[in-house]
Write a sequence for this structure.
């Protein structure tokens, strides 16, 4: 399998969970994060019983994406599932209003969070089809539903992820490939703490039906299920995982 965006807390949790379940994982992230990626995959492999290797990959670069996909095929014999986790979030900077955002701001976020995700799907689709039971899990966000202020470009990009998920599900289902998305609530991790105050995190936790902070491991069950064999007749869906902060 291929997991993108592994160097952050959430991506690390995915790699650990998949290897703990016995999966063979190509873990991908930007080249400058290679040291972190190799530490993560080495630890996950040591913990086993699965195995993980790191592959530098910039999802905005088509050749880089194709190389990551082919690395999974060549190393492990086939590609059965993809978790599209890579996105711009931590480096967004401070919250800015609609009138303060610039066209380059929008171009960058959409280039990574939407077009980059599409490039991963495009490169992986033939390999997934060859298995007859491919799985794609795209990581969206509940901000697409509640419209968090200060990040309009990010909110719009995550809404696009849901639309891309449905479109891809329609097109790829003929080959047995399912495409779903998982929408996390506000996760209390290093990236979120860089962008939000402690009071904001506390308020978000208190607004949930399960009133506690959300941690990366809260996402593992939903993602591993959708990436695995038992979800084979579920496609085009968005599963919100946020402790009951948003009901749809």
């Amino acid at each position: 399998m291929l997991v993108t965006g592994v160097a952050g807390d959430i991506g690390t949790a995915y790699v650990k969970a998949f290897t703990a379940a016995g999966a063979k994982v190509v873990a991908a992230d930007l080249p400058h994060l290679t040291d972190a990626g190799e530490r993560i995959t080495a630890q996950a492999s040591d913990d086993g019983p699965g195995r993980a290797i790191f592959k530098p990959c910039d999802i905005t670069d088509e050749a880089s994406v194709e190389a990551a996909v082919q690395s999974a095929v060549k190393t492990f014999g086939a590609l059965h599932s993809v978790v599209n986790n890579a996105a711009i979030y931590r480096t967004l900077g401070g919250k800015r209003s609609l009138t303060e955002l610039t066209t380059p701001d929008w171009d960058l976020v959409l280039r990574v969070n939407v077009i980059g995700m599409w490039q991963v799907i495009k490169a992986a689709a033939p390999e997934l089809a060859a298995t007859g039971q491919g799985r794609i899990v795209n990581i969206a966000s509940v901000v697409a539903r509640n419209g968090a202020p200060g990040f309009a470009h990010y909110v719009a990009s995550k809404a696009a992820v849901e639309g891309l998920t449905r479109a891809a599900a329609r097109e790829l289902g003929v080959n047995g490939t399912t495409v779903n998305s998982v929408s996390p609530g506000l996760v209390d991790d290093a990236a979120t703490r860089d962008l939000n105050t402690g009071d904001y995190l506390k308020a978000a936790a208190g607004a949930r039906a399960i009133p506690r902070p959300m941690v990366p491991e809260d996402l593992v069950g939903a993602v591993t299920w959708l990436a695995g064999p038992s979800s084979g007749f579920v496609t085009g869906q968005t599963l919100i995982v946020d402790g009951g902060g948003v009901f749809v």
Summary: The longest strand covers residues 178-184.
